[in-house]
């Protein structure tokens, strides 16, 4: 088998992301803050499109799924019940010489990777961020920033059940911020301390869990393929028994071949009835399901596909990156799926003079009703095409002097660079067909 290769280096993506306004370092004017990133004008569109594509697939296109948006701050008992207070920790070691800290399970060998110094014994470090609710900083007021969105779903199980009258199997999906005080964040937005998750809890009747788990694995894998990730850079890895959380029956990771190697994009676990049982115990509330046909109460099992919006966005950016020879130069093109591209169309009048400007303005106004559109009337047309290629805009619409005569424009395709003459009156419909997915 040919060896898998990353499309490009992380440095090139970091530099493109900053130069073109996808991702900036947080608080950059103050020297930045470790592992925090801000999405710029293009990045926010790209990440929103990733989240939107996820919501469409897992909520809109299904009749057995609904969404929620729970608060980030939750009752502290939630994290006792879920096991996070006692056990959400990673093993940490310190270097006795340079004082740097590392995650013990990420190290090869027993020496400091930075200076070769001796390391301390590993000790458990809880990853939850703690803060205080209200003006009093005592222990009674301690709350946590949620380290996953999943628990917001479990605690709303009864609410969703009674308000929607969903029947098993059904699922609840949520997108939102999570926070983990990671020991060693890094690799750009791959591992950060504040990040966004896209999580599903899919409740099933015990006994049907294994088959439904397999179905979710297939569906979630296919989602990444459909949105353009290269098959060779995507794989499914089953967790070894010793990797599994004590309550999990099975878990798989969808992994992508990032520049630093194979790394997790999404985890898909069979969590059994662990979470609902725990919340039932800690809250004193029943958290079960009444199966009318069988006339029995039981606590459902749950399949949890848990993805990272930032990791997904990073993988889509990396995989889209292409450098192609173009005469004596190199054309950099982001071959982002049309669903994900920040701008769908760029409008490029060939001259800054009337009547071209007025025609271009009219087209811009019309297309902005449907899509994020860029407008650029500066510099040579070749340069403008390159700029759009570099940010992944699928179509460029050029308005030239001929347009005044024939009321038609040239539409250029990013990937094939082919050009087609389309009447202005048909343009929206033409692009709608092209951009549908
Ligand atoms: P890892 O082993 O990489 O620390 P994990 O197995 O703890 O990850 P999960 O708890 O399964 O991760 O979280 C589900 C998803 O949330 C991950 O697949 C990833 O996409 C995303 N995620 C988790 N932690 C981070 C982080 N620190 N930064 C960015 N995304 C994250």
In short:
The chain is of the alpha+beta class and 437 residues long. It has helices at 10-20, 41-60, 76-81, 84-87, 150-154, 157-164, 209-226, 274-283, 309-320, 356-367, 381-391, 401-406, 427-435; strands spanning 23-25, 37-39, 65-67, 89-94, 101-103, 123-126, 130-132, 142-144, 170-179, 194-204, 234-238, 250-258, 261-272, 289-291, 296-298, 301-308, 321-326, 329-334, 345-349, 373-375, 395-399, 408-413, 419-423.
Structure description:
The protein is of the alpha+beta class and about 425 residues long. It folds into 2 domains: about 240 residues, BirA Bifunctional Protein, domain 2 (2-Layer Sandwich); about 90 residues, Anticodon-binding domain (Rossmann fold), CATH 3.40.50. Helix content is about 30%, strand content about 30%. It contains 13 helices and 23 strands. The chain has a 7-stranded mixed sheet with strand order 3-9-10-16-13-12-11. Helix 2 packs across helix 9. The longest helix has 20 residues. It is globular, with a radius of gyration of 25 Å. The relative contact order is 0.11. The model has no long low-confidence stretch (mean pLDDT about 95). Adenosine-5'-triphosphate (ATP) binds next to strand 10, strand 13, strand 16 and helix 9.
């Amino acid at each position: 088998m040919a060896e898998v290769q990353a499309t490009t280096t992380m440095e090139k993506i970091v530099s493109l992301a900053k130069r073109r306004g996808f991702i900036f370092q947080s608080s950059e004017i103050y020297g930045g803050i470790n592992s925090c990133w801000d999405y710029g004008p293009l990045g926010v569109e790209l990440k929103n499109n990733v989240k939107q594509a996820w919501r469409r697939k897992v909520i809109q296109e299904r009749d057995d799924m609904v969404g929620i948006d729970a608060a980030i701050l939750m009752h502290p008992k939630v994290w006792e019940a879920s096991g996070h207070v006692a056990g959400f920790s990673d093993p940490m070691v310190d270097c006795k010489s340079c004082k740097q800290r590392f995650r013990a399970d990420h190290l090869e060998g027993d020496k400091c990777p930075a200076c070769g110094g001796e390391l301390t014994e590993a000790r458990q470090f809880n990853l939850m961020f703690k803060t205080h609710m209200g003006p009093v900083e005592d222990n009674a007021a301690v709350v946590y920033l949620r380290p996953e969105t999943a628990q917001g779903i479990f605690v709303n199980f009864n609410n969703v059940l009674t308000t929607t009258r969903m029947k098993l199997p059904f699922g609840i999906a949520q997108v939102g911020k999570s926070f983990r005080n990671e020991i060693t964040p890094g690799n750009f937005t791959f591992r950060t301390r504040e990040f966004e998750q896209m999580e599903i809890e899919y409740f099933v009747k015990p006994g049907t869990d294994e088959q439904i788990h397999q179905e979710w694995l297939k569906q979630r894998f296919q989602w990444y393929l459909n949105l353009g990730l290269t098959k060779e850079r995507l794989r499914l890895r089953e967790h070894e028994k010793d990797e599994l959380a004590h309550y999990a029956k099975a878990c798989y990771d969808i992994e992508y071949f990032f520049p630093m190697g194979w790394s997790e994009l999404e985890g898909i676990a069979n969590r059994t009835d662990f979470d609902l049982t725990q919340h039932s115990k800690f809250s004193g509330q029943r958290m079960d399901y009444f199966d009318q046909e069988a006339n029995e109460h039981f606590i459902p099992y749950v399949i949890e596909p848990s993805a990272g919006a930032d990791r997904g966005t990073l993988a889509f950016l990396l995989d889209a990156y292409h450098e192609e020879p173009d005469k004596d130069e190199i054309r950099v093109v982001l071959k982002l799926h049309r669903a994900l591209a920040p701008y769908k169309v760029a409008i490029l009048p060939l001259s800054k003079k009337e009547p071209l400007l007025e025609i271009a303005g009219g087209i811009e106004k019309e297309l902005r009703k449907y899509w994020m559109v860029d407008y650029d009337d500066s510099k040579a047309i070749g340069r403008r095409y390159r700029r759009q290629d570099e940010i992944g805009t699928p179509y460029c619409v050029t308005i030239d002097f001929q347009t005044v005569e024939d009321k038609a424009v040239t539409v250029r395709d990013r990937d094939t660079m082919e050009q087609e003459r389309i009447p202005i009156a048909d343009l929206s419909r033409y692009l709608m067909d092209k951009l549908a997915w």
